[in-house]
Design a protein that fits this description.
The protein has 240 residues and is mainly alpha-helical. It has two domains: 169 residues; 66 residues, no CATH class.
Amino acid sequence: MNYNNELENKIFRIILIGTLALSVISIIGNILFGFPFLADIKWFVLIGIAGYLLLKKERAANNIYKIIYFAFIIFVLIPVGWINSGGNANNTIGYIFLTLIAVNYMFYKNTRNFFIISLISIFVLIQIIGRIYPSIIPVYSYDTQFMDRLIQIPLTLFASYVMIKKFADEYRNEKENLDIRIDKIREHMKKFGENNSINITLSFGITQIKNNDTKESVLQRTDNALYKAKENGKNTSFFI
């Protein structure tokens, strides 16, 4: 498995674990604040999907299952959740924010653009539908909505922080490991050069292999990175 897929799969497992935690917390909150059982069905379905993908790691590594997972969140969970919460835009924005973060880490180019445009379109559409057909939105007491916001929004913000931190940590660890390997190669070649009265410096052009890459696109990007490294001086590296 290539470097980039390995990192993506680690991040996806973090997302799935976060999904389970957020779903359980939401179900408990809904029960405590008197929301109907129908409001929990979407969370139970999400628990089922996330749990299945965590148990079946080979399925979770497949890009098709990642697309299905995020499609369910964007086209089912978010609009249904908005209706179930009584048209609470604050909660919906929080979930959209989390999903935007995850989509930007997990996908590239057309797939990422499709999901981002879909997220924005879904949010606008549910606002319009709620305005035209207000009867589809259940009405809850002010106290119930207040307590829901009091619990859900801080939890969503905390989940965002944890996910971003874990994503950054995974990326940083991979980058540090790569830097260590490059430094070892440089040190080895430097000693070889000193033993043979040769001054050896090494510049590296580095790129990640993406799911939709071809051999030509990878080589082209690596070549561009190497030129950038050389422009910055000898013994340098450039990541693109």
